[in-house]
Amino acid sequence: MHAGPQHLLASIRESYWPISGRNLAKQVSRSCVQCFKVAPKTITPLMGNLPSSRVTIQLPFQVCGVDYAGPFLLKNYVYYQQISEIVFNLPSL
Questions:
Q1: pLDDT tens digits for 5-40?
Q2: In the prediction, which pLDDT does 70 show?
Q3: Does residue 51 belong to any structural domain of this protein?
Q4: What's the domain range around 70?
Q5: Distance between CA atoms of 22 and 55, rounded to whole angstroms?
Q6: How many domains does the chain have?
Q7: Is residue 49 part of a domain?
Q8: For residue 23, which of 44, 36, 9, 2 has the smallest C-alpha distance?
Q9: Phi and psi at residue 28, in whole multiples of 5°?
């Protein structure tokens, strides 16, 4: 495997000085099948669409939401206790 076009060119130039060596080193490192298999290109994930309230510029605490979760049944020693939860969602910009 090759260490990249610059390193490949530097190691060749210790013994020889090839004509248009930079282009040749790039061509060899790009056409090498083993180097291609070892270092495949990564796929960047697509970002989902954001709601308009998250994209537009607004003052702090101008937009907030309230989520209601529950009821949850929690066992409190002998009896079950019913608890509801309210969460305030403050969008961060």
A1: 888 889 989 999 989 899 988 888 888 888 778 877
A2: 65
A3: no
A4: 58-89
A5: 46
A6: 2
A7: no
A8: 9
A9: -65, -45
Residue ranges of alpha helices (H) inside 1-93 are 5-12, 21-31, 33-38, 52-55
Using DSSP, state whether 46 is helix, strand or coil: coil
pLDDT tens by residue, 43-54:
888 888 887 767
Please give the backbone phi and psi of residue 71, each rounded to the nearest 5 degrees, phi first. Answer: -80, 145
Residue 25: Cβ within 10 Å count: 22
- 52 CB burial (10 A radius; 0-12, 13-18, 19+): exposed
User: Whole-model pTM?
Assistant: 0.40
Residue 16 lies in a domain: yes
H/E element, 76: strand 65-76
71 part of a folded domain: yes
Using the 8-state DSSP alphabet, how is residue 63 labeled? S
The single-letter code of the amino acid at 82 is Q
Per-residue pLDDT band for 93 (boundaries 50, 70, 90) equals: very low
